[in-house]
């Protein structure tokens, strides 16, 4: 029994070793491929425990998560021959493990990243070279990025990967061209501002002319109506005055004199240079009305010397 114990232990160790080499575990973040002499035998994409033939088959694991790739700065020449410095990045992941293995071989993720970078750079140059630089520097950039993504998706299918998104991080002019570009942009904006001011002044002149015309028409109509009303009022006033004058000529003369005093002695105008016996003061000097004939007083006897 003592001689068989080491043998049993050795057999048990061998079985455990074989069991460890026969089973493998696939994480939820991975995809596994079983290879036999370099040929693909099976693919396991679901997480869990897998089986392979020990010592004959081996397992290769690939990251199933979304990967990122950043391209170096590219110099792109749009249609208007204005050079741009562009930085782009892409997000991708493995879609078909077998196709991916056949395309990149044993290089794995590194080789795939290099080939995807070449595809992305080519599409960036092609798409941005087909438009003017204003489209790249404006809100139209979103549509351009979608075009780059769609073309990259079509070409990346040969690698067994899906390109999820492509974005342009930066699209700037070279340093030597920035100043000239800023000056052209400033001149263009100044010209547009001058055009807008000219159109605004023209519209303002039309509005002012219309307003002046309307004001003249309103004032003319108002003056016409006022003259009509004033004429009617003067006629009615003259009729009333004529009727009053005919009814009581002395009272009418008294009222006119009082009105003349009021207009003459108004404010600081309180000094008049007139003769004492002027008719202007008839109602102030004479005990009787101005319309009546005054009786001259009797002459007084001459005074004596003693008086």
Approximately what portion of the residues adopt beta-strand conformation?
15-25%
- Give the low-confidence spans: 288-307
SSE class:
alpha+beta
Termini gap: 194 Å
Provide a concise account of the structure shown:
Helices cover 52% and strands 19% of the residues. It is an alpha+beta fold. The longest helix has 73 residues, at 175-247.
Fold and architecture overview:
This protein is α+β, with helices and mostly antiparallel strands and 307 residues long. Helices cover 52% and strands 19% of the residues. The protein has 8 helices and 9 strands. It has helices at residues 4-22, 97-104, 108-128, 133-136, 141-156, 175-247, 249-264, 282-285; strands at residues 23-26, 30-36, 39-44, 48-51, 57-63, 67-70, 74-76, 84-94, 161-172. The strands form 3 sheets. Strands 6, 7, 8 and 9 form a 4-stranded antiparallel sheet that branches. A 3-stranded antiparallel sheet has the order 3-2-5, with no helix packed on it. A two-stranded antiparallel sheet has the order 1-4. Strand 2 (30-36) and strand 3 (39-44) form a beta hairpin. Helix 2 crosses helix 3 and helix 6 (175-247) runs antiparallel to helix 7 (249-264). It starts with a helix and ends in a 22-residue tail after the last helix. 11% of the residues are buried.
